# Entry
Amino acid sequence: MGYKTIIEDDIDILVAGAGLGGTGAAFEARYWGKNKKIVIAEKANIDRSGAVAQGLYAINCYMGTRFGENNPEDHVRYARIDLMGMVREDLAFDMARHVDSAVHQFEEWGLPIMRNEKTGAYLREGRWQIMIHGESYKPIVAEAAKNSADKVFNRVCVTHLLMDESKENRVAGAVGFNVRTGNYHVFKSKTVICGAGGASNIFKPRSVGEGAGRVWYAPWSSGSAYGLMIEAGAKMTQMENRIVLARFKDGYGPVGAYFLHLKTYTQNAYGEEYESKWFPALQEMVGKEYLDPEASHATHRPIPTCLRNHAIINEVNAGRGPIHMVTMEAFQDPHLEEIGWHNFLGMTVGQAVLWAATDVDPKYENPELTTSEPYVMGSHATGCGAWCSGPEDVSPDEYFWGYNRMTTIEGLFGAGDAVGGTPHAFSSGSFTEGRLAAKAACKYIDDGKANGIIVTDAQISRRKEEIYKPLETYTVGRNEIVAGSVNPNYINPRQGLDRLQKLMDEYCGGFGVNYMTNDKLLSIGLKKMAILGEDLEKVAASDIHELLRAWELKHRFLTSEAVFQHTMFRKETRWPGYYYRGDAMKVDDENWHVLTVSRRDPKTGEYTMEKAPLYHLVGDIEDKDLAKLKAEGHH
Amino acid sequence: MPTFVYMTRCDGCGQCVDICPSDIMHIDKTLRRAYNIEPNMCWECYSCVKACPHHAIDVRGYADFAPLGHSVRVHRDEEKGTIAWRIKFRNGKKDFDLLAPITTKPWGTCIPQLANEAAPADSMRDTQLLYNEPKYVAMNDNALMTLESNGLEIKEGVYY
# Structure
């Protein structure tokens, strides 16, 4: 191969992937590490990379302590009920107590945050979200990261972590390739902060053909956060906690501002309220502590998002679809109509295009909703990711090994999608986690924990050979056939992705099987996954762009395998509406009120699964609500 | 809604190639103009559309569900700090403009250079505070919240 090897040595902090998590890390690292060498490696361009590339119309996680609105523990309670109990509360509390300081800085940097003219506080949509004009959210935070970093390597796709050869289970940097030049990049670094993304496109999407990229979560979010960490042997948690989104049909336009700010609501095809009729039976499945509509009504405690999905899925199956969003009332107000459209233009332009193309004017017609294919991520309303240490002053012993947001691999830190058990961080929380990880990484280096790292040329060469193998496979196999893409010796990345998506959909609970699976399906699926894994050794790339897709596919594959293993392990239906285990259709708190932790042995590829304790920091119900409930005769 | 490039407007400057998060805007080697090499990995994020200095890039709704005949055009102006949209429906009944701010400050001028900030004291490293904290949490000097300060303690909650 004629590609150059470019080695960047003596790095203190390597930020691998710079979406909101990575930019937060690079920014903060400079403050605690004045003389440290901080380097960013990003497969796209950090001005528009990650899930926020397109923009956002809301910051979904903001306490508003400054305006007397919420305290961190309120948010922990909220995230906990939404995830049916399964949250790392130490990490969630830690993120929540710092997140406002990130948001206040965004405003100082120029991010337009809307304000409530009466109160002077930020304009809210619901209890946790504030509204912004966030088209340039990502370029603004990227600027902050660029000001702090020594070097930014755009268009370098990180494929593997480098491991220290003097001490087992310690990180030593990362390797990857430049998707423009093809050059091999080696980053020797004392610490790595993994800011890479969660996974779209691992389940078969509802859109087909040309539209296959019309997924809810960015198609470039290729599960690299998980692929990198799993491959290196980091422990992962809650990988079974995939998320299904209820969104406007086909465009996957956001519904948050519609529900919360525009006060729209849903109904079935015949104009009926349908949600509440599914709740009595559902309450039998999940128990009253997770679904008690009366108590929720009294306290404004939200009903878990997955359970609302359950109602949509069942109503549609009962033949009363589609579900409609009632927009015709709100959109009579020109101001609200404008907000409805801006909401799309700021973060999901495709929904605006779709309505323009199909002549759906929500002022005169109630648009359809649907449930998406599942996604695997750790920053939105779901908590997949690495098993990380928490902060010293909050975490119980099982959750604490010295450095905040450090994974079970020494020197490897996570932020955003990479950190498990911390749902509802969203953009601001991911940026905040990056900041926390960066401070801890500086301390780790200053404590001398990264001394004596050895990376041999052999490791560097081995990885190089591995990375470029798809190009070689193509070169060798190509001329055996006349033309076209059908070859008996290899598959291309798109073919591999199609196979992965079909497998995940049919055996691991995608939309095609109504999100249903069981132990038999999972066992067959895992067997087929193992064979797909063998075939991925023969994935072929005809050029550097396809090589990028090949490595994205491999990261998606590793992510998917972990999802299979975790789903098999948790023998209950913890989140009806996200997935169902037909052989265990109930929430089983007696056996499964735990966090799940996996580790894939890097040498053998074998998985070990374990249960980890789930600690609660705060009471179930806020004091003021408890008083109210008692007064009304509940409990 | 994948992107496409108008032949007569593109001059092959590569701004779209530079910005596309999905690595799908490439330069055609024969025509020396940009094009979308992989429409089914396009997220319609409009990054390339906004970046194109010649407005040469447009979007046509995804063929699997969007009919022809619509248009959503955009003009992003960093100097003015605004973004302008024009949406035209397929049936011609709706054609409207929307404008929003993208920043409240002259571009890039209000972002701190942390290298120039005073270094934190060593004792700060063992605290839970980040840059600009505790002040920036509540825009006053109230201390950062802890479990103790909020009257919380780790509750037993381990169910095996």
Observations:
- Chain B touches chain A through 88 residues (CB under 8 Å).
- DSSP finds three helices and seven strands in chain B.
- The first strand of chain B starts at residue 3 and ends at 5.
- Chain B has a mean pLDDT of 94.
